[in-house]
């Protein structure tokens, strides 16, 4: 089966750029739905598409898309930068 991924919408890129400038809880919370729809949902689609491709050659690395994607919240406990949110999206394909 051939995987397909339409790409990230422009709104997701605009959101992440705005988050970089407004990296505060008060700004993010009312816009969390935008993050869910324009950044996280396409990332789930990307991981799902990659999983389909990897089934042919790397079955041990196929992951649940929701678990493979890193959360947007930063661990700021030991960081000088106390910005609460990441301004990018990432995923990991760990060997099972």
Describe how the helices and strands are arranged.
Elements: H1 10-21, H2 25-28, H3 32-54, H4 65-68
Helix pairs in contact: 1-3
Polypeptide structure, described:
- The protein is built from four helices and no strands.
- The model has no long low-confidence stretch (mean pLDDT 96).
- It has a domain at 10-68.
- With 96 residues, it is mainly α.
- Helix 1 crosses helix 3 (32-54).
- The protein is flat, with a radius of gyration of 15 Å.
Which properties best describe this structure?
single chain; 45% helix; 96 residues; mainly alpha
Question: In summary, what is this structure?
Answer:
The protein has helices spanning 10-21, 25-28, 32-54, 65-68. The protein is mostly helical.
Spans of at least 5 consecutive residues whose pLDDT stays below 50 are: none
Q: Tell me how many strands there are.
A: 0
Order of helices and strands: HHHH
Largest sheet: none
Structural class: mainly alpha
Describe the global form. Answer: flat
Q: List the total number of helices.
A: 4
Please tell me the overall pLDDT.
96
Beta fraction: under 5%
Share of helix, binned: 40-55%
Query: Any idea what the radius of gyration is?
Result: 15 Å
Rounded to the nearest angstrom, the distance between the terminal CA atoms is 22 Å
């Amino acid at each position: 089966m051939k995987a397909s991924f339409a790409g990230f919408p422009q709104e997701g890129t605009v959101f992440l750029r705005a988050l970089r400038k407004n990296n505060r809880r008060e700004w993010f919370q009312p816009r969390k739905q935008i993050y869910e729809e324009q950044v996280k949902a396409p990332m789930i689609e990307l991981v799902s598409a990659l999983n389909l491709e990897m089934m042919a050659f790397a079955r041990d690395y196929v992951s649940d898309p929701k678990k493979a994607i890193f959360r947007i919240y930063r661990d700021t406990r030991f960081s000088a930068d106390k910005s609460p949110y990441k301004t990018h999206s990432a995923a990991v394909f760990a060997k099972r």
